[in-house]
Specification:
The protein has no helices and 7 strands. The chain is mainly β and 103 residues long. Strand 3 (28-34) and strand 4 (41-48) form a beta hairpin.
Length: 103
C-alpha cells in the first residue's frame, strides 16, 4: 500500500564511535551521528537499498555495513515487496568515514 508506514526494522551501532545505522522498508539504510551524551541523532547520509532491511552489522573497522534484505519483514508476512530478492547487501562506507568519529 502506498500509505504504508515505514517503521525501523533493524539497528546497528559501530563500537567506539558515534555512528548508528537504521533500516526500514522505505528504500534506504540511514546512517546517523549520535549527539552529545548520546541524547540525539542527526542523519549523516542515506544509502539506497530496496526491500525490508531485516538485519544490519558493521565490519570491525567500519569500512562497510552488511544488510540482510528481504521481500518480507522477518517477523511476519503482512506485506511483500515485489521485485525484491532476498539477499545480503554489502554497503561500502570507506568514502564516508570522514563523517563520523572513531575513538
Amino acid at each position: 500500500p502506498s500509505q504504508q508506514e515505514h517503521w525501523i526494522t533493524a539497528v546497528a551501532a559501530l563500537p567506539n564511535s558515534d555512528l548508528v545505522a537504521s533500516g526500514s522498508n522505505d528504500g534506504f539504510v540511514r546512517l546517523w551521528r549520535c549527539g552529545d551524551k548520546f541524547q540525539s541523532l542527526s542523519v549523516l547520509f542515506s544509502i539506497q537499498c530496496a526491500g525490508f532491511i531485516n538485519s544490519l552489522v558493521f565490519s570491525r573497522g567500519g569500512d562497510f555495513l552488511v544488510a540482510a534484505v528481504g521481500q518480507e519483514h522477518r517477523f511476519g508476512r503482512w506485506w511483500k515487496e515485489k521485485g525484491v530478492r532476498n539477499t545480503v547487501a554489502i554497503l561500502p562506507l570507506h568514502k564516508h568515514k570522514k563523517d563520523f568519529k572513531q575513538k
